[in-house]
Amino acid sequence: MAANRVENVVRRKAATDGPPPNFGMLVDKAGLPVTSSSSMPTSSRPTIMRSRTFKVFIFSLVFLLVFFVAKQQQQQHVSISFGGDVITGEKDATPRELTLDDLIVGDYIAAGGINVACDVKFPDWWYTQEQNQHHNKFERKVLKLTTLIDEGCYEVDSLRKLNEDKAIAHRLNFIPILFWAKNVTNPFYKKNTKQLPESFPHKGAAKTLTERSRIVAHVVPYLDEDRYIDISSVGSVGKIRIFFRSLVEQLAHAYSYGIVNFDLSTSNVWVDPTDYHAVVTDWNGGWDVGQPAWAGDVNFRYVPPEAMVNIGVPPDGRPILIVSGSAYDVWAIGVKLVTAMYYPCFSAKTRYFDTKTDHLRAILQASGGNMNIPVSNATDLVDLAALVGLDTTKVSASEFQPLIYQDHPGVQCKKSSFKAFEEEKEEGREGEAFDFIRSILKVSPLDRPKYDELIQHPFLKL
Fold it and tell me: How far apart are CA 320 and CA 302, in angstroms?
């Protein structure tokens, strides 16, 4: 009777709603079909319901377990220690790429002829990625920004090449590059929304950051000037020799990649007092060998004679072309060595001369020797002494003397002896030092020693 009442209810409902899914079949109170009362006792129907519910529960549990395991394979919890503090987070299976917009720009530090430097922090998620776990979150970093695209790209490419071999880069003390973005949309452009911190001056190179639509950026570790020192304050001859051998090895390795620095100024070359090795902070002053070299292109004090003139007057004049890129940096090494050895006297400073030509005349008269410099190739030579109004024969016969000047009141500069040797006597070293300087400061770049010759000089043999 109960079965018949159920079937009649189903048939009456079908007249208005259409046929149900189990039309023509007996169903129980849960709506599950039954074959017949004879083949399946009524007392067994609740058992079927419990069995099916249990199977659904097991299936759901298995599904959730599989989903959880898959999720764990995609993300795993990590703990990273930075100086005693522990930072926890999730490590992505697919590392997220850091962009310029991700950087947290801090206060303005300084501006040079090309770059503007400021403090910067990376977002926390960057440190949780597996390849970045060795970086110290609390280590100070510097963001260098420039709107001079070619120069900025040159420095980025140079640093990347110099850090290709991590072991060599560590041994030679090359600065690591932590992030770079070449010729990208400038987020600080006045038409964009991202603002520079209020500490940025609204003048000079810093001002151009809001006036150009494209930019080059890279991040390097911060070099604390309270830790790193200038070569002029080292004093000890032994430490000076360690520094210059380190510097020559760095420049030689860079030159093997076709990289020339062209700006080994005081602000770009420091001494690490822990081992007295050289630290070169900038590589953005370089250009390819054969490109015109103008005196105003780089630091005036460190440019060699061939970069201080042009043949004729621009635009009709013919610029001097660099024949040997290594010879350019070798001259700067000599200028730095003179400053280190004769401190507190210095090599020539611009304020002692009215014009660059006056400075050049003083260099030629102090150096002597061959006055012919290549203009565009090794055989296209120009008499530099005659070009600036000097008697070539007389100047060439001059005995070499370092070009140094008094920079502190009451200090007497002696060209015949080194201040650095007054407290540290090493037999024979003084003569080696003078010969090393004389071999470097040759007027003609064709006469200056190559890097392998410098390393073999007795003064740099440690």
Answer: 17
